[in-house]
Write a structure and sequence with these properties.
single chain; two-stranded antiparallel ribbon; mainly alpha; about 60 residues; globular
């Protein structure tokens, strides 16, 4: 994610006050597979992956 911030995709990933709520609601659905539009898929503990993603995004872009 940090590499994107260095190049032409700077600001590509938004992080707002709605992001944690959205990722928590998606985690609550307990998906078994996460798939991106232009990338690989993940099959496993997707609820934890979404929760962990929020932590990383908050660390990188969140404002306290």
């Amino acid at each position: 994610m940090l590499e994107y911030e260095k190049g032409p995709l700077m600001g590509y990933t938004p992080y707002t006050h709605n992001t944690p709520k959205l990722l928590d609601s998606l985690a609550g659905l307990q998906p078994k597979t996460l798939a991106t539009m232009h990338g690989s898929s993940f099959h496993g503990d997707c609820s934890k992956a979404l929760t962990d993603l929020n932590l990383v995004m908050k660390e990188l872009w969140g404002k306290e």
